[in-house]
Structure to design on (263 residues):
């Protein structure tokens, strides 16, 4: 079992603009410089809690990470009719895709178990995009801060997924050494070993896991160690500040993530 790394330590990224396995990883300093109005922030505001820490202190986050506490979420969600209308055509196209029913089921599982207080933090600290216009042609993508968290793709009539995680959660000793990757655990975390593949960029605590088949995606999401790793990575980036992908948020897809979709 890998060492359990505490939350709250920011991810350190290398030079800007690295394209790894189709994912663009930007330098953290460069990202901060791009956040609107960041230079105009008052000294008091810049010293206050950022990101998820405005809602949950580190003890509450740690309890949720370890599965020791259920968090009280907001009673109401933010919403925008204009935003819904903007992405309505894409959502209608998504509904017509063969794997849509299974996709919505997996999204509901992800939203319920992998995102802390998802209703209170929707759009501004995490978002989900519908048929984003990127070269890899995903069906949906979940983001927080400047980072991709989780992506689902069509695989014939089924699905495949990409998770971005911390490498240290998948090494036998909790290190960043790729040669200590816990392959036995990874093979057990899905329905069949051939359903899972992975890559990792050298020098970063980042691990890219790709899974084929909705059954194996569900297995990975419900494995306790994998679930903890997903939660820890999501906490890292939700704690970094406001979500940079607010403009691409699809409330209609988020309805399903939050258990409010119409079957």
């Amino acid at each position: 079992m890998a060492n359990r790394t505490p939350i709250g330590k920011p991810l350190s990224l290398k030079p800007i603009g690295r394209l790894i396995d189709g994912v663009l990883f930007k330098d953290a300093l460069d990202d901060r410089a791009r956040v609107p109005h960041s230079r105009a922030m008052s000294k008091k505001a810049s010293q206050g809690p950022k990101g998820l820490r405005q809602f949950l202190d580190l003890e509450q986050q740690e309890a949720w990470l370890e599965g020791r506490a259920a968090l009280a979420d907001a009673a109401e969600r933010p919403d925008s009719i204009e935003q819904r209308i903007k992405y309505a055509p894409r959502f209608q196209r998504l509904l017509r895709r063969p794997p849509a029913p299974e996709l919505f089921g997996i999204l509901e599982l992800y939203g319920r178990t992998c995102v802390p207080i998802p209703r209170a933090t929707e759009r501004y600290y995490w978002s989900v995009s519908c048929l984003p216009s990127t070269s890899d042609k995903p069906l949906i993508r979940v983001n927080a801060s400047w980072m991709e968290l989780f992506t689902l793709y069509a695989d014939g009539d089924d699905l495949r997924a990409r998770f971005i995680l911390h490498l240290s959660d998948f090494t036998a000793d909790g290190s960043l050494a790729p040669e200590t990757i816990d392959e036995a655990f990874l093979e057990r975390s899905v329905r069949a070993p051939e359903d899972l593949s992975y890559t990792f960029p050298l020098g970063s605590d980042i691990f890219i896991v790709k899974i084929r088949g909705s059954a194996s995606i569900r297995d990975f999401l419900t494995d306790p160690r994998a679930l903890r790793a997903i939660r820890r990575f999501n906490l890292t980036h939700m704690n970094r500040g406001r979500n940079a992908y607010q403009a691409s948020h699809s409330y209609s897809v988020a309805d399903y993530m939050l258990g409010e979709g119409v079957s």
